[in-house]
Each structure stands twice: as structure tokens, then as C-alpha cells.
Predict the 3D structure of the following.
Amino acid sequence: MRRSYVHGESATAVATAATIASTTTVTTAPTSTTITATTAATKLTAMDTHDITLTINGTEHDLSVEPRTLLVHALRDELGYTGTNVGCESTLCGACTVNMDGDAVKSCTILAVQADGTELRTVEGLRESGTFHPIQEGFQKEHGLQCGYCTPGMMLAATDLLEENPDPSDEEIREGIEGNLCRCTGYQNIVNAVEYAAEEMRADDTGSTETAAADGGVPMTDYEAVKEED
Amino acid sequence: MKPAAFEYHRPESVSEATDLLAEHDGAELMAGNQSLGILMANRLATPDHLVDLNAVDELSYIDVTDEAVEIGALARHRDIETSASLAEALPMFPDAASQIAGPSVRNMGTLGGSIGEADPAGNYPAVVTALDGELTLVSPDGQRTVPASEYFIAYMFTELEEEEVIAKVTVPREPFPTDRTGMAFLEQKPAAQTWPTISVGAAIRVDDPEREEPVVEDARVTLANVAGVPLRAEAAEAKVEGEPLSEGALEAAGEAASEASNPEGEMHADEQYKRELAAEYTRRSFETAYDRAVGSQ
């Protein structure tokens, strides 16, 4: 019989919630009748903070955050990694996608405290030693962006896909980025960009560096070596 | 700063977690944070204490034996989606998991979170109901098992008590021999990130897939988002059992599921449309499950 944390847990509120069940998103479900002011007496006022460590693009950062600080805000406001954008703040748009311990995640629904001790990769970490990552090259060459707002998130979602599936079909690419919205491109050029990156990365992997080297791309083996040196 | 302030706790065991729930009135559990996080950001939820389960490693597993499938509450959608042993034993689980939002959400969201949230449009509530799963709930006083059929009480209300944590889901494998069982989980939704308009999970066991017209021995079907709780449509199951799957039986099953449903209209789908979807998706999911059971798909 949980749900006590949802405000206005009374028979009326429950009935209200029930009648408006099945709306398309959670955020649209509760109405004003379920939102009640919390009395000051029961609400926390003291801002207790937690000391956490985030390793971002290979650099360790120690910081102190309130538990309610979202990871995306810690990245942007506390640490200056402003490449990660804030969009819908409700896991719908994917603009805030980063990589956490090897997986693409949406940093708007992860608490900074929750990410304590993790290794994060943001769009700033894609570029190494002045050379674009194949996915960045792909977006540039295939015109994968117009306004660019979704681009950092798209690239982090795409690199996660390519790490798991180095040779995705068009459909698999579309599935891989289905949590990321773009309002400009119509997606086709983004799919092309991911395909471009996949080809480059595969060429690097098999040692057939012709394609990659010819256009200035960095073979992944060297890319890993560069990371070591850092 | 979007959510209201709260105190944060990060237990490393189930017993620590339940102790925290007992100690702090109004404490709330957090797993993947893909639904609760949104409620909190909009201040529709303002718990004073948040108990983060992500470090409770003992809840993170998928265990498939000859007798049963056990999935820990902290198993991520992605783990379930990509588990080869689940795909073999109870393919409805990976099928349902793979259709939740996009990959980044699936990397975080958990089985237990979905069942705790108990949104009737959720995928796992329908799956565990269709497969007659059992939930293990742990409190400071011990643990109890609750059948899925009794767990979901009303719209987002469940058997779960204030001091309880969902530990695992158990599904016995005996009713679903892999060589003659087929499963399907089909859903319709306007976009990847939205809740589905309807989802239907179905399982069909036939007597002998080698026969010319294999007979349906056992059928299961559960519909999501057409009632306040996951809707097990037993009347629809009865329509296809005891004979080879026919057009007439599918038609009757669809009608029965539609009659059993009691949907709320929503922005992109009125009540009548959802009733029609209930019939059509019941039909399609039985057909797909049967095809898979007889090995033609």
C-alpha cells in the first residue's frame, strides 16, 4: 500500500488519480488536487551535503553536493561540463545523455550522490588530443545536426550502441537512439552519421586503417594509447 | 534544484534497507529512478528520506534453473532484455523489457521499480500476472510471498507495506516447457518514450508441435493499460484452449478480452478505441505465441 510519498494521499486523491489513470506520461497524471503544500514543520530545511567523487573523462573530481542535486546539474553547474545539455528533465528527450560506467544514461534522472564513485564520459571526453572521435566526424561529415542541442546526447547514445554492436543495421541504429529526440534533422542524417562512425571504428579495429587514416581519423588502438598517456 | 530536499541513505543489504524504512517515517525506496525521479523533480513526490537501493548487490541477479526463474528486483531492463537464459526459458520477459523506453532508460530502470510503481500500463506487471509469478517481499520481520494475482490492488496501489522491499520475482517453469510453448509481448505506443496505449502478454502451450494441428493445452493472456490493474483475461484464454488455434477462436478471444477490459480514455486513445485495441492485440499476441509454440516462427 505504498504511494504515501505522493502528495494528497486521501480517498479523494486516490479516486482522482484513478479516474485520470492511463494518461500517456506519469508527469501529466496528477492534477492540482494531488499537489498540496507540505507543512514547514515536517519539511527538511537543513541542507546536509554529501562528499562524492566523480571521475569525468578520466579526471577525478571531489565535490560536495546536496542529495537532491541532479547529476546533470553537478556536471554543468558545479564542474563546468556544459557540453551536456538539459532538455525535458524527465527522461524523454535524451539531451542530457552521458556514459556512466560504460552505459549510456540520462543524467537528469540520476542523483549526483547516486553517481558517487562512477566513471563518467561526457561529450567533452570524446575528442582526444585535438582529434575528433569517429562519431563527431560522422556528425560533421553527414550533417547530423542543425541546432545542435540534441547532439551531445545523441553522440553518447550512439557510442554506447557502437560499443555493443559495431555493425548495426539502420533499424538497430534507430532503436539505439530512440530515447533521444531531434527536432531538426528528421533523423536520417543522424543515422548516416552513426553509420559513418561504425565504418570508421570497424576499419580501425580490423587494422585496415586505410579509410580512417586517409581522412585524418584516429585508429582506435592509438585512441586507447592516447588515453593511457593522459 | 528541482526536487525538494531529502535525506539520502545508501544501504548495502536488504536488511539495512528495511531497517531504514522502519526507522524513517515516509521514507521512499529508489532503484533506477526513472519514474520516481520525474515525480520528485516535479515535486509531486517529496519524500523526507530516500533509500537508494543501487548498492544492494544481493538484489541484482537473474537465476534460471530447471524448476523456476528467479529475477532479483534490482535487475535492470537491459539485463533482462539481453539475458540468453531468459530468452530460452521465459521469452516474454526479454520481449517486454526490450520495449520499455529507449536504451539509456533501460540501462537504469529495474524490475522491482516497475512492480513497485505498479502503473497498470507497465510491462512487467502484465508479464508477472500472465505467467502467474510470485513476489517475495521482505520486511524487518521476515519475508512473505504474494502471488502477482493478489499483489496489484488498484491503480498504483499494491500489497507492498510501508516497511517492505520487493526482493525478487519467481516464476515456476513447469507450465512452460520450452519445446512446446510460445510467448509474445506486443504493444502499441505513439513514441518510444511514452507509456504504451496498450500492451498484451500471451503464452500458449500446445500438446505436440509435431502434430498436423497442434492443440492449445494452456493459454495465458494479460492486458496492460485497459484497467486499474494488469488485466488477466481468463475468459479469452478459455476461448482458445482445447482445440487447434482457429480464426473463430481468435475472434472470440478478442471479443472476450475487449469485454473484460475497462479502459479510461486518454489523450490519444478514447475508451472505445482502447476496447478495439484490446481485442486486436489479444488476437495478435495469441497468434504470435501459437506460431512460436509450434515452431513456425
Summary: Residues 46-125 of chain A form a domain with the Ubiquitin-like (UB roll) fold (CATH 3.10.20.30).
